[in-house]
Design brief:
Length: 167
């Protein structure tokens, strides 16, 4: 996942909005076969969409369980592929898995007000803004104003055991 994240965040725009640089990531040494080291820990999910012929990562989404039990998401699309629908496709799939497979009732995302692409991305997949003005500190320490969005599915139900979920 580290190498995938480095590939997808190789541009200044991604690193700005996400508040992280490739060198900021650390792993716990886990591997899955010959895949990139994974950032596996309780309450964390990572999803990667890749080209079926080359294996090249096109997009990635992470879900991280917060102290209140809600999963916050973050995502990135390869800089050369933005605006072509890849982000919406993976977000749609991840929301379906999160709600109808893992049983997560609510997903949440914070977006900096100037990040219009992310605001449109979330709205295209059924996220709605809600009034929760607060400052947010990104992984690189940059403090931002954040607009908060959520997606709720009251029919969410866990359909199989998820060993990474903690609640």
């Amino acid at each position: 996942m580290v190498r995938i994240w480095e590939q997808l965040t190789r541009d200044d725009e991604s690193r700005h909005w996400l508040g992280s640089a490739p060198g900021d990531l650390v792993t716990n040494g886990s591997t899955a076969g010959n895949l990139d080291p994974l950032l596996i820990r309780p309450g964390y999910q990572a999803f990667v969409g890749s080209d079926t012929h080359t294996g090249y990562a096109l997009t990635a989404i992470t879900l991280t369980r917060q102290d209140d039990g809600v999963y916050e998401l973050g995502g990135v699309v390869d800089p050369a592929l933005r605006g072509k629908g890849y982000g919406r496709e993976i977000l749609t799939a991840v929301c379906l898995l999160a709600h109808q497979h893992f049983g997560f009732v609510k997903l949440r995302a914070g977006v900096e007000p100037g990040n219009l692409a992310s605001l449109h991305w979330l709205a295209s997949c059924g996220f709605v803004g809600y009034d929760a003005p607060r400052r947010h500190i990104l992984p690189n320490g940059r403090e931002i104003d954040s607009l908060w969005w959520h997606r709720t599915d009251r029919t969410a139900r866990q359909r199989c055991r998820n060993p990474l979920a903690t609640g």
